Amino acid sequence: MPRAKKTVRSTAAKRIRLLIATRKGLWTLTSDLARNAWKIAGPLFHGHIVHHAVGDPRDPRTLLAAARTGHLGPTIFRSTDAGKTWKEAAKPPAFAEGSGRVVNHTFWLTSGHASEQGTWYAGTSPQGLFRSADGGATWESVDGFNKHPQRKAWCGGDQDGTPDGAKLHSILVDPRDPKHLYIAMSSGGVFESVDAGADWKPLNKGVRADFLPDPSAEYGHDPHCVRFAAGHPDRLYQQNHCGIFRIDRPNERWQEIGATMPKSVGYVGFPMVVHPRDPDTLWVFPMDGTTVWPRTSPGGRPSVYRSRDGGSSWKRLDQGLPKAQAWWTVKRQAMTADARDPAGLYFGTTSGEVWGSRDEGRTFRCLARHLPHIYSVECA
Amino acid sequence: MGRSSHEAAAVVRVRVPSPLHSYTGARDVAVAVPVLAPEMPPTLGGVLAALDGAYPGIRFRMIDEQGHVRPHIKLFIDTTLTRDLATPLPTGAAVMIVAALSGG
Questions:
Q1: Chain B nearest-CA residue for A373
Q2: Cα dihedral sign, A145-A146-A148-A153
Q3: CB spacing of B19 vs A71 below 8 angstroms
Q4: Looking at the complex, does the CB of residue B61 fall below 8 Å from at least one CB of chain A?
Q5: In whole angstroms, what is the distance from residue A128 CA to residue A152 CA?
Q6: pLDDT digits (tens, 9 = 90+) for A177-203
Q7: What is the CATH number of the domain that holds B48?
Q8: A77 → chain B, closest CA residue
């Protein structure tokens, strides 16, 4: 019998898909690579509060979504067929019995190192770190953090912290070394582990904590989002409650890079997005952090700000965005870039709109509206 | 002391609220709860464990990792509200789970 002719299939992505996690379910927006025509689908998990939905860069067919409902406890849903079917984790993230601590929701999901297929990390509210070695089916406590003798001092009590619950987020795995991890906590600060999470140390020097009696305290800071610079994991960018910062390791001290933002806009925001290739390019989305912290677009005029020089200078990018009376903001997981050239930039708003740019933020247009409050936007 | 040879099971009717129908596929289900000894009737916790055996994952959505009923879940044995999972079930009693939440 003659051998069947082998069909060669390109593995290159032929479409862009955004996962839109909201307070009432999960939607997708899909486009071809031109990024002109977007098609919306959903909701999945209708009525669930989906805090984060992400794809697996190691396996494009795998997706994870962290969800709960108002009534029901937190869980993780997993798909291994690009979202056609989903299965619930057999053992979702949960603190140890007897610890007295209860996971309210899983807030952040990060895929593990490229060499560790199936490994995932989850950050929870209140602050907890969990790891899965089986693609998200079962989750184990990272006791090196959750049972660290200093954890309570670092984080405060479980009732302390941000209005929607204290959070562990921005879990970063060094692409050169699976044992080298960073996490960030609101509140708590940025912490580093060089032994796969067995031990941790604070990494907050140079970051201001204006709300503390000692603004240069070792911990207790409020990072909102931390990212590796593209292709340059010795550099991290941080959007903090008190400014925008950069660190170039092995330095131990963060440098403030938000001071050159316009005073009328300020340097407060939730997301931090890095360019897919250029380590000097990053985007932020400022919000109003004055007086009672309205956390809306400053002056009702939303804008992305971009730096092309590692944070030395910033450019306002608002072409296509509303010019007035737009009082939404963008949560920390709700802004992302695709890997195309030029890179696409996308964000979802607290008022349920998704905006996109296919020219690195020079122009924006609305891709979807009337969705629920958006918690995360990720390319998958 | 040896293990009891008593291996009976009590069948308990459970009414399930709509947020949990994705697990059970039905509003009314019945679960078999092991009865270790005639003088040890099944407890509410035993019913939830049996429910989780039949519908894996359902218990954690209602009961947190410290064994407490989650804030917006209410559990009734017949018409009596209880948050104590050790509460024994009278013979023939039914369990009703209520998911109670207001707001948008």
A1: B104
A2: positive
A3: yes
A4: yes
A5: 11
A6: 999 999 999 989 999 999 999 999 999
A7: 3.10.20.30
A8: B57
